[in-house]
Amino acid sequence: MKRIPEVTVERLIKYLRFVEEMEKDGMRNLTAKQIAESLGLNPHLVRKDLAYFGQFGKRGKGYETEKLGETLRKIMGLDKRWKVALVGVGNLGSALLRYPGFKERGFDVVCAFDTSPQKIGRQIEDIKIESMDKMEEIVSKENIKIAILSIPKEAAEEVSDRLVKAGVMGILNFAPRYLQYSYPFRVLNVDLSLYLESLTFYLENDGKKNLSM
Q: What is the b/e burial string over 122-134, where b = at least 16 CB atoms within 10 angstroms of the residue's CB?
């Protein structure tokens, strides 16, 4: 299969969320125009994104909602469940362990790790916090392919290297340090302050734009 642009992957996730909403509402068919309008996109772009994976719509009728949902879930790997490890059980890590949305979307956080003696052995949402010394053993035994990092930046590179060696293929990184690995490994670096700074830019400049009109 040809390489899929990252922006297309991001849109596919949005398409799936919308399609699932329409499934719940009982809508049997959807058009590219309906999907596009719901997300503020061009219908041609929607059709182009979906065409990467074959022609599964019908001219003049659009897409069968249920079938499109099934196809998108399969494309995104959401037709199966994924085991996830969480490393770093501070304020953010604890909140992530309690977040119900992971399980709803097919992600089962099955283990958590920390270095603090006060945290090791405790349970959060039935997940026992283990020592970092056991991380490779448990990750390998459980065949875990996805990990979430919520640790200090000083430890991010070392811990991620250990996870990769243990078999992890994808990392969601909340640590304030940019991580990067070559194919086939994947890292998504999440900098929450970056999004806030983007908001302040638009708020500041949109306000100036409105004043000048």
A: eebeebebbebee
Does residue 108 sit in the same domain as residue 143? yes
Residue 178, phi then psi, degrees to nearest 5: -70, 125
Distances (CA, A) of 24 to 17, 20, 63, 68, 102: 11, 6, 16, 13, 19
pLDDT of residue 2: 65
How far out from the chain centre does Cα 28 lie?
Answer: 27
Please, which residues have CB within 8 angstroms of residue 103's CB and are 6 or more apart in sequence? 109
Domain count, the chain: 2
Please say if the pLDDT value at position 210 is more than 60.
Answer: no
Model pTM?
Answer: 0.88
CA separation for the pair 13, 72 (Å, rounded): 8
Q: Which CATH number covers residue 33?
A: 1.10.10.10
Q: Among all chains, which residue has been given the structure tokens 């929607």?
A: 46
Q: Which domain, by its residues, includes 113?
A: 82-193
> Which H or E element spans position 84?
strand 82-87
Q: Quickly state the pLDDT bin for 55 (edges 50, 70, 90).
A: confident
What is the spatial distance between Cα 171 and Cα 194, in angstroms, rounded to a whole number?
A: 19
Listed range (83-87, 166-170, 174-178) with the worst mean pLDDT: 174-178
Q: How large is the angle between the packed helices 6-24 and 32-39, nearest 10 degrees? A: 100
